Amino acid sequence: MVFDATPAPPSHSWMPSSPCGSGCIEHLDEVSTARMLARLAGVAGLVLSFPVFTIATAAGRREDMQRRYARAALRCLGMRLRIVDNRGGERSAAGFADPGTAVLVVAGHIGWADVVALAAVQPVSFVARADMVDWPVLGKLAQLTRVIPIERTRLRELPGVVGQVARRLAAGNRIAVFPEGTTWCGRAYGSLRPAMFQAAIDTGTPVQPVRLRYLDSRGTPCTVPGFVGEDTFAESAERVLRSKGMVVEIVLEPLEHPGLDRRELARRCARAIRGADRSRHGVLDTEWIESGNTRVQDPSIGQPSAASATVTGW
Hints:
α1 (33-56) runs antiparallel to α2, α1 (33-56) packs parallel to α4 and α2 packs across α3. The chain has one domain (29-277): Glycerol-3-phosphate (1)-acyltransferase, CATH 3.40.1130. It has helices at residues 33-56, 59-76, 113-121, 138-144, 158-170, 197-203, 233-242, 262-274; strands spanning 79-85, 103-107, 125-129, 148-150, 174-177, 207-215, 246-252, 288-291, 294-297. It is 32% helix and 15% strand. It is of the alpha/beta class. The protein contains 8 helices and 9 strands. The strands form 2 sheets. It has a 7-stranded mixed beta sheet, with helices on both faces. The chain has a two-stranded antiparallel sheet with strand order 8-9. Residues 103-215 form the Phospholipid/glycerol acyltransferase domain. InterPro entries: Plipid/glycerol_acylTrfase.
């Protein structure tokens, strides 16, 4: 069941993981139980009606409908959306790219609400955990939004996923990826793994760095939406639905041209996404070896401790 889904535990020492856990979560003021249940009913109504309206809406109007749905979902979750466009004159309206224009959208990963927040800016396809397509209800939504599944426990399949992203970009699609490969609490973050950036390099596609933050009523970054540690979806969803005064802030930084080096492109995007923020847990550097069309961490370098298991194979 979707409401029992937890972050997948690492199956090998270089699988994406983070040290964030329940100790990172700082609760906000809460709404009443009745208000929380009303929010939940609103989300359920949107989720159940989305497939019907997607099929019934003309193709030319479908993108606008999906954006409206995502914004309505944020409101039902008790979040206000704030979009900041730092790209100057690149676009007259806040969106990732013009219709039919390919772009690779790159953001840090905090929780399941990230997908809704990015879709509220402009509908995109996502690279997401493979088991999502099997979840009740949400699996159907994943199929409708053409999610590209990735099995994090099978590193050998990563080049194929990168190839799928490249083919979608070559066809003029907008694809969103979370290169950290796992979720962090919102006040800490990991390094951006270079593998997915190869798809942008292979297709000459510009990359849109997105700074995604959840703020409390005072404008301070909050960790309520973090889907970390032993969280189940039900626990995380209840925490979000009960919280009051949250704002999800999407900052669109200037586009990054792909260049020829995925590691250098990843570093440029990391600088754009992080700004002056410092990670609560620090960011560990990694050593990389080649694996087909991707790079993975060399597991022979040493095993991470349980308190700092931030090394990944992405």
